[in-house]
Every structure is written in C-alpha cells, then in structure tokens.
C-alpha cells in the first residue's frame, strides 16, 4: 500500500490524474466533443511519459468526459456526450423547474457512486468475471441485445408504434455499409463514403445536440428557460438519496455488467438503466418531469461502464469500446501487454492503476462541483451565440472522429432528421438504442445461425441464452401489464 501511495504521489502521476480528469469534465460538458476527441487531444502528450501516468491520463479524460456530459444535458438540454442523452430527459426539466444546481448535484453523486462501484468491481473480480465472459458466444450476445431492444417498449410508453418505427430506423442505419460476413456492400447507394458504414457517434451527436439546436433556434430571440444567474452546486439530502438507493445500486449493476460485455457501451447502458428505473422505480410516475431518479439511473449506469469496460481490456486484452481500444493500444506501445499474465507479472502496476481509478472518480466529483459556477458563466452567453458555438463544436467533434468530411455531413443530416422526429413526437431514445445495438444484433444472430445450422430453436436451448430470453419475456410481460394498469389513470387525467 505504501508503494502504491508513493507511486500515485509522484508529480507526473498526480498531474496526470488531476489534469486528465479536469480536461475530461470540460470536454464532456461541451456538446459535440466527447471522450474520443478528448483522448485524441491528449494522446500525443503520452509518448514521452511512463506507462502508469500515461494510462492514468487517458482514464482521467475518459471518466471525466462521461460525467461532464451531464452538465450541458441538464442546463441546456444538449448532452455533451451521447452517454448522457438519457440524463436530459429528467435533468433538464428539473433545471427548468428552478433547481439546476441540485440537478447537477444528483448527477455528480450518481456519477461518483457509479464510477467508484465499478472500480471496486474491477479490483475484486476482474479475472473471474473476464473468464466467465469467455463463455458467452454469439447466441448469448444475441439474447442480450434482444432483451435490450425490448426496452424500446418502455421508452416509448404511450407511443409504442412510434417507438418501434424509430428502433427499426436505428437498426437500418446500423447495417449500412459492408456485410460483416461476406464483405458485400449494402444500402450504400453508390456513395463511396457509405461503403464503410455510418459513423454512429456522428449520428448521435447530430441526433441529440444538433436537433436540439434546431429546436431552440425556432425561438432564438427568447432567453433560455434555465436561470443560471445564481447557479450553485447543491448535494441532495440523505433522506432523498435513501429513498432512491435501490435504483442507484441497480443502475450501478446494470452499467458495470453492460460495460464488461464488449461492444455495448455507455449509451446503451444509460438508456437501459433509465427505462428499467422508469418501469420499476419508486417515483416512476414523475419520470420526464424532473425526477431525480431518472438522473440517477442514467448517470450511475454510464459512469459504471467505465470500470466495467476495463475488465476485459486489462484482464483479456479485449477492449470493450472505442475508448478502451485506445487505452489497450497505448499499453502495448508502452511495452505492457494486457491479459491474464499482466496480473501475475506486474501486480504493482495493476494495483496502482486500480487505486488511481478510484481517486479519479473522487477528483471527478470535486472538480465538477468546483466548476459549476464556471459552466454557468459559459452558458450565460446569449442563446444565439451559444447555439452557434455548439453547432461549431458539434461539427468539429464529428470531423475529429475520423478526419472525414462525410462524418460532418452525417452529423448534419442526423440533426435534421432528429429535428423532424422531435416535431412528430417520435422518441429519439428508441432510435438510439436500435442504432447502438444494431451491429451486435446482426453479427451475433448470423453467427448463431451458422453455429446451429440455421436453427433458431437451438439458440433458445443454450443455458445462458435461454435464461436471458426468459428474462426478456418476463420484462416484456411486466411492461405490458404495467401499461394496462396505467390506462385507466391516464384516461382519467386526460378527462380532468
């Protein structure tokens, strides 16, 4: 423990933790930027650093940016990162209701608990959980994605048809490009830029950030609905936290579990956690009206993904998402080969990294609380200027993903489509779930059919996939019964 403490108190490691986390929070809070851009900016600075501070720097940017996205989601209804899209569903109404500081306090608390929870899981069960995840084949991944897609029903409560249409649109966009099995081009319409598929991050930036810009531009002369003139960070009282503790812990479990499974990501985790809280939460009737339980569900889950995604990355060398892919690549460049042998050959490095991750989550909360007033001054800029800056940052963020102008066009088109869908009352969350899970749904299903000689029944008879499908049916039944139970109350409310 003393060696770990001395290692973390080295000036370069300490500066990497504080600087990386602060930069991540700021980058995450600016709509259109996000984790990938933040990591891309700091990556060149790691080439002259030792292995531990360089990895700590990347993890600080990663964790800080995931949390930072909640700030703009709450204050201006424009998620700084796609991971915080679900946070705006209740965070922004709470801010409009006169409690922006308290909404940020809820997000900060949930982010701290979610990130720390995942760090503890990473420390305690990294190797066993990573070994167990090896048992999951394509049928199990297909069953998991199918369960996630059933959440569309809960997201679209009151408008199931629109939700299903949005989910199908998301699935369609996800399969544009080359066939993962045969390499044949699909739905590219002869456009070279579409042959590699549609950049999902660019779509999500346009879908949530730009579409909100277009919505607010309709009344650009009016001031923002959130009063940030006296914005002050406020933590919720313990009594309010205790009443929502069950949702907080459940969201931590959902985020960590999804983070361990490669390819799913924090965006899907936040939406799945949100709709689960909307289905079973104690205060589910207030969702969409500024209910803190909605903020908790989204922020605890997406921050818990950070630690979960590091489990397969460190224990197996298999990155869970694009961010951890950069981290794994940097480890290899530094001469550290991630995998099961890393825990035996260099336990000091692993334990120092675990301790640094916990400290980073604490720093994230402290920096977020300290910068609340700064964010308020930034957002006090006139709406027209702010919307223009957000549009610029969104375009820059889309371009920085791959250095391609096609991604900028994709982002702009997604923004227009999102604007039209908002006007039509179509839930963007359903489209986001379909888009994020689309590639995994297709690939796992087709691989499963190859394994079973084209038999769907064989997929359902496998123990793990069968258990997940049983849970899926139970979830669908619970949502259906819940909708039926709420119909008389909604009718009464409408008549009143």
Automatic annotation (TrEMBL):
InterPro entries: DUF112_TM (IPR002823). The chain crosses the membrane at residues 20-43, 55-76, 103-129, 141-174, 194-214, 252-275, 314-333, 353-378, 384-402, 409-436, 456-481. Residues 14-431 form the DUF112 domain. It holds the Pfam family TctA. Keywords: Membrane, Transmembrane, Transmembrane helix. It comes from the Bacteria. PANTHER family: TRICARBOXYLIC TRANSPORT PROTEIN. This is Tripartite tricarboxylate transporter permease.
